[in-house]
Design a protein that fits this description.
The complex is a heterotrimer of chains A (155), B (384) and C (289). With 155 residues, chain A is α+β, with helices and mostly antiparallel strands. Chain A has four helices and eight strands. In chain A, 32% of the residues lie in helices and 28% in strands. Chain B is built from 13 helices and 16 strands. Chain B is an alpha+beta fold and 384 residues long. Classes of the chains: A alpha+beta (155), B alpha+beta (384), C alpha/beta (289). β7 of chain B pairs antiparallel with β1 of chain C.
């Protein structure tokens, strides 16, 4: 019998959060597995899941007709996939695909939202933790936009 | 044709037919046996036709067998289609000489005499009508195709021996010939070897008038009915066309596309033998004297570069290219041209090196309509 | 097969829609490091009338042919303009065509923006990414001119990679002075840039258009079309009143060669401008279609 509560509690996303957070999240969660190549979520779909990655590597992608599939980010064990459930229009902006067999804790964010309203202290701590993760990604993305390395072409 | 009496010509009436067509200035083309297959070539007399030959076809399989009998049309279709006669596999669209800031263009014109097709199959005639809609009857016409179609004389021979890959009845294109012909014949072998003849145009009536013939009687008509009924019962396979365009349109992410892609070599044989595929590539070539030519040749949507755009191919996987071919043929052809692109000739099945059968593929999708990959949210199935 | 080539001295005698008509390059402007505008005139007579959003097939003799949108302003009889981005051998040759040289022209082809059909009270939101402003240039100029005194406002939202890649900066300024709302954003700024930085969809919330009265015209990379289309629908614009310009491999331009297929469409014949709601919104989401 898988100790889902234990897994949730040990996931880095929840490290150091108040007692009871892991239990609250576990109550909205189930364990899922993806084959290599399988999509966790697809652009345009309804965003209602938060994935805490346990094992394997997941790529965040967008597709275009001549670009094909472009990988814009990767997330490994301990990371988080899926943020568009946070705000309207609650729709995935990108694809997320398992690059290798992957396991994750899938949190139903509709139920989570309800529980967090009922437990505001835990709710605040979780949303603050989410802001930290998003801030880190935003800062990293801004630095990437500087295109620091150049592309080798003479100008 | 209303008012024109059906007729009968006897078994060796083809020589007279070919002679009459020649006297009208028409190059007579028909089925001939070459390299173990029924292909198309110049026909000078009935001796050139595939007398006594029968074909055995299945997925990835084609074999001819000779029985020494008198039957001229005891076979279904070979790899060649009449498309090549009107839509040239290769041709020069224009030539230009470039020099001193001036460009002079010339348009090569095809001066060969119109052709007569002797022994086209009903599915072929339907295929030409489908191609007419695409290449001749749209807002812009391919002028060369239109010129070649005008003046062509078509003698269709209805099928008495469908093969293992035929499904014309599913597509409403056979075994009887509907329209688009000058003369329609049915080979009758009960008793005397003879051909039942129906007239389809004033030109057809003119040609018939110059052939030895007699009016068709009830016995002849009954014999023709029996041949056609037997053909309908012996179709090699069937394609369920019930709401098929919608079925394919809503299953673009079906796992079957990836499954067939594991077998498909993306070789494009199916597009080569298909009588309605019309894609073409153009290429401009020049020489050191400043002469430039634009050449057009048949192309295939299975080519990786077919969908090249701004640095990459849009359909980068075999799965997406197979999906394009099949959904175009059976679904989006309706959106673009108002009918199905498939005539049920079965060539794509016989000439696929790995024997992929589109009747089987569509049936598999129909059986699990709406299926997507397990576990994931949406699929992106055709991109794996 | 007997092949007889008849020299054609008068372009009007060319029979086939597949034969280019020779046009002379009467003007040339370097817009950006990789974008050149050619001004073309037929050897005899006037170019055929065209609608904004349509394209011509331009031949660089000896190299090949490419589909290039007509970017002319105004739409009066006279020489026509094409703004070409150098991305391959054909466009490279076209970008290097000199004044006095000859370019082959076939067209105009396709379905355009149909701005003539818009009533003057409509607000028009234009979202253009990169070279996407070129097929929109004529339509925007027409709309801005018609609404100079009265009528619904025109909002031009343009995105470029960097400040030196902003296309038609002069036209953008002219439209701003004529009363249009013009906003430009870049992905990567330079020290002298005081405009917006960010993806073009970030300009949408700041544009004070009334979604209920809005028609939107979008042109640019497909990913941008998806983002901008969704953003406008989320803001309340009727999806059926959003029009996008689609692009696929084009070789004949007249619906005969099969290359430009996108699902049920032949883009050269049924587009390139198509409605977003109920058509392009689904097609743009289909991977490898």
């Amino acid at each position: 019998m898988t100790d889902t509560l234990g897994l949730v509690g040990r996931h880095p996303f929840l490290a150091g959060l108040p007692d009871g957070t892991a239990a609250l999240v576990t109550g909205c969660a189930r364990l899922v597995a993806f084959d290599k190549g399988e999509l966790l979520l697809a652009e345009g779909g309804t965003a209602a899941t938060l994935y805490l990655i346990e094992g394997g590597r997941v790529g965040i992608e967008i597709h275009g007709p001549s670009e094909g599939r472009v990988v814009i980010d990767t997330v490994g064990p301990g990371g988080v996939v899926g943020f568009s459930w946070v705000a309207p229009p609650f729709r995935w902006q990108f694809d997320a695909r398992a690059f290798e067999p992957a396991t994750a804790i899938a949190v139903d964010t509709e139920r989570l939202r309800t529980r967090l309203v009922e437990h505001p202290a835990v709710g605040y701590a979780l949303v603050e933790r989410l802001s930290w993760v998003l801030l880190g990604l935003l800062q990293a993305t801004r630095i990437r936009l500087l295109d620091l390395y150049g592309d080798g072409r003479r100008r | 044709m209303d008012g024109a009496q059906d007729a009968v010509i006897d078994g060796d009436g083809f020589d007279a037919l070919i002679a009459v067509l020649g006297s009208r200035g028409l190059r007579t083309l028909g089925p001939v046996v070459r390299d173990g297959a029924v292909v198309h070539g110049e026909v000078a007399g009935s001796g050139d036709l595939p007398t006594g030959w029968h074909d055995h076809q299945g997925p990835g399989r084609y074999r001819l067998e000779q029985d020494g009998g008198p039957e001229l049309f005891g076979w279904a279709v070979g790899p060649a289609s009449w498309k090549a006669e009107f839509f040239a596999p290769e041709e020069t669209l224009w030539r230009a000489s470039v020099g001193d800031g001036e460009v002079t263009l010339t348009e090569p014109h095809d001066r060969t005499s119109p052709c007569a097709l002797v022994g086209a199959r009903p599915c072929e005639v339907r295929a030409l009508a489908v191609l007419d809609r695409v290449l001749r009857d749209g807002a812009v016409a391919d002028d060369r195709y239109a010129d070649r179609r005008r003046g062509a004389f078509v003698v269709v021979v209805e099928c008495g021996a469908p093969s293992g890959t035929c499904f014309c009845t599913s597509m409403g294109s056979g075994p009887a010939a509907g329209e688009g012909f000058d003369l329609a014949m049915t080979e009758l072998l009960d008793g005397d070897h003879r051909f039942y003849v129906r007239v389809g145009s004033p030109e057809g009536a003119e040609v018939l008038a110059r052939l030895p013939h007699r009016p068709a009687g009830p016995g002849d008509s009954a014999a023709r009915d029996q041949v056609l009924a037997h053909s309908e019962d012996s179709m090699g396979r069937a394609l369920d066309t019930e709401r098929l365009p919608d079925l394919l349109a809503r299953n673009l992410e079906h796992p079957r596309w990836d499954e067939v892609a594991e077998r498909c070599l993306s070789c494009g044989n199916c597009t080569l033998v298909c009588p309605t595929c019309f894609c073409s590539d153009v290429k401009d070539v020049s020489d050191v004297t400043g002469a430039v030519e634009r050449q057009r040749r048949w192309a295939s949507c299975f080519d990786l570069d077919h969908s090249y755009l701004n640095g990459g191919a849009v359909r980068a996987t075999t799965a997406s290219r197979y999906r394009q071919w099949l959904t175009h043929k059976l679904s989006t052809w309706w959106d673009q041209f108002g009918e199905s692109g498939c005539v049920g000739c079965g060539r794509c099945i016989a000439w696929c090196p790995v024997g992929i059968d589109l009747t089987e593929e569509t049936a598999a999708i129909r059986e699990s309509d709406g299926a997507t990959w397990d576990g994931g949210a949406a699929t992106g199935a055709a991109t794996r | 097969m007997v092949d007889v080539a008849e020299p054609v001295t008068h372009p009007a005698a060319l029979r086939s829609p597949l034969s280019p008509r020779p046009y002379r390059v009467v003007g040339r402007r370097v817009d950006l490091v990789d974008v050149v505008t050619l001004v073309l005139e037929p050897r005899l007579g006037q170019p055929p009338p065209f609608a904004h959003g349509q394209f011509n097939m331009l031949t660089a003799f000896g190299v090949g042919e490419a589909a290039i949108s007509i970017s002319s302003v105004p739409r009066a009889p006279g020489p026509i303009e094409h703004s070409i981005r150098d991305v391959g051998p054909v466009t490279h040759a076209l970008c290097n065509a000199e004044v006095g040289g000859v370019v082959g022209v076939r067209g105009p082809f396709g379905i355009g923006w149909d701005v003539d059909g818009l009533d003057d009270a409509t607000e028009v939101v234009v979202v253009a990414g990169g070279i996407g402003l070129a097929p929109l240039r004529g339509a925007v100029a027409d709309l801005v001119e018609r609404r100079r005194e009265a009528g619904g406002r025109v909002y031009v939202l343009a995105g470029a990679r960097s400040p030196d890649q902003v296309l038609f900066a002069d036209d953008l300024e002219r439209w701003r002075r004529a009363g249009a709302h013009v906003a430009v954003t870049v992905d990567i700024a330079t020290p002298d840039w005081s405009g917006a930085v960010g993806v073009v969809t970030t300009l949408i919330p700041e544009a004070p258009f009334d979604p209920a009265r809005t028609v939107a015209l979008l042109c640019g990379p497909e990913i941008m079309l998806r983002l901008a289309g969704r953003a406008l629908v989320d803001d309340g614009v009727d999806p059926a009143r959003i029009r996008v310009s689609l692009e696929r491999n084009m070789q004949c331009g007249v619906g005969l060669c099969g290359h430009c297929q996108l699902g049920p469409l032949l883009v050269c014949r049924d587009g390139p401008v198509v409605r977003y709601g109920g058509l392009a919104d689904e097609l743009l989401m289909e991977r490898q279609r």
